[in-house]
Design brief:
The protein is α+β, with helices and mostly antiparallel strands and about 300 residues long. It contains 11 helices and 12 strands. The protein folds into 2 domains: about 160 residues, Ribosomal Protein S5, domain 2 (2-Layer Sandwich); about 120 residues, Alpha-Beta Plaits (2-Layer Sandwich), CATH 3.30.70.890. It binds 4-diphosphocytidyl-2-C-methyl-D-erythritol (CDM) and adenosine-5'-triphosphate. Its EC number is 2.7.1.148.
């Protein structure tokens, strides 16, 4: 008898950068109140799911050796959450191809969790509505709802309440990937420590930044990029100061630590400039590797298998 191997469901999902990240005080639940503007970038992971006897996870690509393949992986927890909602066993093999740097402040694990929600919804024909997917996403992590959403959005609460933002045209970025990673909770804790000493300033409101986004004006946007976590990331990884200086010296309009870091994101005037800045930055040895990316791009979406492979 012929056994038919089903086609995998494949979802691609973008990385994010926080254009504005204002961190409020520590809440009783251990999270900080945030006011942030996310943008999804053209650096992506791919998650494939296929029916199997039991739940397994495999990871390949950029930094795969640092990613757990058991229930510490967010995709494992995402699969359990969808299966639980559907009243079935999470009997699937999940394959993750990483393009987003691991522990890089670009929400790679969150992206994979969002992709898994969408892939299993499709594989199992659940047709969960957006609100249900969003609720499952928020339970998995603060950045997971945005990975589903994509584009450019304002996030509040611990980052999970989203409102879309109008962004005209495409912005061009260079990403400097660092040699190591930074743990998100450690960076938040370092900010609390620095604040207890009374040092770092706090970001204001993102009103002017949203106007620059709506106008599609990179030169106006550049000086408005702000990240309250940057002093904490720099305190834990002082060498990032050199990376930031090198990107600006190479011709970027502005550089910022992405989220909890250590990836540094440089906004450039146009695509040509991004390619030049990327090439120059790669040559000066201040980071592990360099990527050129554009944003905004859509959130997690089913790959077009006919055309894509
Ligand atoms: C830094 C950002 O990437 C900015 O978008 C996010 O705030 C981090 O989101 P994430 O990685 O999805 O974080 P979660 O998995 O929800 O939380 C991990 C840990 O980060 C800290 N955390 C996270 C989000 C938040 N608003 N306040 C926090 O203090 C907490 O210690 C929490 O236990
Ligand atoms: N699917 C996954 N991909 C990457 N890391 C994962 C995944 N699942 C769990 N992890 C663990 O989570 C840690 C943080 O990884 P991740 O790449 O999500 O960091 P990040 O991009 O800094 O996150 P964020 O920007 O959301 O704070 C890793 O060190 C890894 O051990």
């Amino acid at each position: 008898m012929l056994s038919v191997v089903p086609d995998p469901v494949v979802v691609t999902v973008p990385a994010k950068v926080n254009l504005h990240l204002a961190v409020g005080d520590l809440r009783d639940d251990g999270y900080h109140e945030l006011s942030t503007v996310f943008q999804a970038l053209s650096l992506s992971d791919e998650v494939s799911v296929v029916p199997a006897d039991t739940l397994t996870v495999q990871v390949q690509g950029e930094g795969a050796q640092f990613v757990p393949t058991d229930n510490r992986n967010l995709v494992w927890r995402a699969a359990e959450a969808v299966a639980d909602r559907a009243g079935r066993e999470p009997a699937v093999k999940i394959s993750v191809r990483k393009g987003i740097p691991v522990a890089g402040g670009m929400a790679g694990g969150s992206a994979d969790a969002a992709a898994t929600l969408l892939a299993l919804d499709h594989l199992w024909g659940l047709e969960l509505d957006r609100a249900t997917l969003h609720e499952l996403a928020a339970d998995l992590g603060s950045d997971v709802p945005f990975a589903l959403h994509g584009g450019t959005a304002v996030g509040s609460g611990r980052g999970e309440h989203l409102l879309p933002v109008l962004a005209r045209d495409t912005f061009h970025w260079v990403l400097a990937l660092a040699k190591g990673g930074l743990s998100t909770p450690k960076v938040f804790a370092e900010l609390d420590r620095l604040r207890a000493e009374g040092r770092p300033p706090r970001a204001g409101t993102p009103d002017a930044l949203m106007q620059a986004l709506a106008a599609g004006d990179a030169a106006t946007l550049a000086p408005l990029l702000v990240n309250d976590l940057q002093p904490a990331a720099l305190s834990l990884m002082p060498e990032l100061r050199r990376t930031l200086r090198a990107g600006e010296a190479a011709g970027a309009l502005a550089g910022i630590v992405s989220g909890s870091g250590p990836t540094c994101a440089f906004l450039c005037a146009d695509e040509q400039s991004a390619i030049q800045v990327g090439a120059e930055l790669a040559g000066v040895g201040v980071c592990r590797t360099v990527r050129v990316a554009a944003g905004p791009v859509p959130g997690a979406r089913l790959a077009d298998i006919e055309e894509g492979r």
